[in-house]
Design goal:
The structure is a homodimer of 122-residue chains. Chain A has 122 residues and is α+β, with helices and mostly antiparallel strands. Chain A has 4 helices and 6 strands. Chain A has a 6-stranded mixed β-sheet with strand order 2-1-6-5-4-3. Chains A and B meet through strand 3, strand 4, strand 5, strand 6 and helix 4 of A and strand 3, strand 4, strand 5, strand 6 and helix 4 of B.
Chain lengths: 122, 122
């Protein structure tokens, strides 16, 4: 798998809302950051952040508008959609940066308008 | 020039605070968006946004942490620093997406924590 394929698999694991499948595609020293909101270091912190988020959604669909890779670095532009159990839909425009090593993601930083996310979640 | 070279030149033109040099690297139907803050369409709107911003800074330094290109699409991860005349420094962590055509940038979308920028500018 190319670095881009690993990231594609990670996106799909997120869409499946399967936190263990997500973690399987990360190294154990993963640093996953939502820029402006904080960094999750390691499996426990990623599980603590994403688990409840996926539990709260009945469907997750991340549309990849473009993805570019070079060596171990992958970047993509996405619209991340979360369909919540109460019928509400959250859509976030995101640019993601990924560092891949040995077929797993070791660094992941998502950039987005944090204020917009907060107002959608309010 | 590769698409990546065009983006590199655009970053340098921004650092030079020379709005005409910036516009020269854009098509006349440029769509430049600070995601969450609005889109500038065409030279006049880009000039109206960036001109005063560069006029207010004595130095602009955009550190490119990584840049990846594939075909006409370029993405980069940056720290954009603005040193204002009053001695204040603004630093913004950014992920940028660029579409290049005929040696010029036609699409440019910067993703960042807008709330953080606003609090630094307050």
């Amino acid at each position: 798998m190319s670095a881009g394929d690993v990231v594609k698999a990670l996106i799909e694991a997120n869409e499946s809302r399967d936190i263990e499948a997500v973690l399987e595609l990360m190294t154990d020293d993963i640093a996953y950051e939502n820029v402006g909101m904080g960094v999750c270091n390691g499996y426990d912190e990623v599980r603590a952040l994403l688990g409840p988020f996926y539990g709260g959604a009945s469907r997750v669909a991340w549309e990849v508008l473009a993805q570019v890779e070079q060596g171990d670095t992958v970047m993509n532009e996405r619209i991340d959609r979360f369909f919540l159990h109460d019928g509400k839909e959250i859509a976030i425009r995101v640019a993601g940066v990924f560092e891949v090593t040995g077929g797993k993601v070791r660094g992941w930083r998502d950039y987005f308008d944090t204020g917009n996310l907060m107002s959608q979640m309010a």
